[in-house]
Amino acid sequence: MRRVFGLVGRKLGHSHSPAIHAMLGCRGYKLYEVEPEELGGFLRRPDLGAVNVTIPYKRDVFDHVDLVDSAAMEIGAVNTIVNRNGELTGFNTDIDGLKYALRRGGIDLCGKKTVILGSGGTSRTATAAAKSLGARETVIISRSGENNYGNLEKNADADILINTTPVGMSPNCPASPVDLRAFPRLLGVMDVVYNPIRTGLIMQAEELGIPHAGGLAMLVAQAKAAEELFFHKEIDDSKIEEITSALTRNVTNVVLIGMPGCGKTTVGKFLARMSGRELVDIDKLVTSRTGTRPGDLITERGEAEFRRLETELLREVMACTGKIVTTGGGCVTVPENYPILHQSGRIYRVDRQLDMLATRGRPLSAGGIEGLRALFETRDPLYARFADVTVKNDGTLQDAADKIWSDFCENTRY
Question: In order of start, what are the domains of the chain with their CATH numbers?
Fold first, then answer.
């Protein structure tokens, strides 16, 4: 009998789990959307091999399993069920994933005051992890509890912060549940959210130089721990890194910025053909949404209105993954656009000699070489701030595209 392996929930939508488990060796792993009244029957089907369990059933399944291991019992949630000769045993591998991600990020809880944002199921997992890792004190921040978002100053001496809320999850990003400057002593920050790759909280930790860990490594590590239970085998932790890197490349957008006329759109077309990815040209998207080309829109409505619309579209596009995104030359003039691009993109500056820039139909590039030089001097430091990598486009467009794609494949890391 072919056994059933997969993820059980009510409304699953998109999930990385099938891809992760396929890379771990379980290619028959599927998604199973089950209504509450169907849960017991599904778990007792004779061909059940093992399943992961997600919202809203992590507590409900206690009524349908025969045994629960000690970690899951302490946390009060089961996320993995294994059928062993007709006996269902519940485990919690989320705690394994959380500990791995903390360790990977160089975040040590031993002897530290740990503040956990959120009071749901994942908060209980984080609390159990903090206890087992020797945290000196653990404080739960909730919306209405004794420690809440209105009195964060009570816990300004926190050493470690763990976000277990969904705040900052795509598409509502790059929002953040708190301002990290409220905790001036932080030695580490973890966010369990894994979409986008960099949440608002993680990006602020980057900016402040605080060691940090995101949710993708936790997701893969808990799947690895579950897979070991599924098939009674050990899997080396190097597999977690291999899968995490592969997923990161798959979901990260290639973003092109640069002066008007530097060749971003054409280089983007080469990249789309090379990679098989969809090309999203923000200027063309503006035209399709308004019926007016960017240059004419700037002339008719002013640059401020154009920039507002551009930011709105960037936010929409960057909520998607695995795209080639070409931006308008002036997107870097709006500081708000940096976290929007950085949250799920690797940003490439396409740099071309000023006398080689195309200017036709570009009102902000008018004024000949002197006008371009003035525009360049204003924007050059902005491009430098936004870009992860600068690629010269003074040769062929194919050469520029090759350099970008080679760098992306080699250096897109989680």
Answer: 4-92 (3.40.50.10860), 96-216 (3.40.50.720), 253-411 (3.40.50.300)
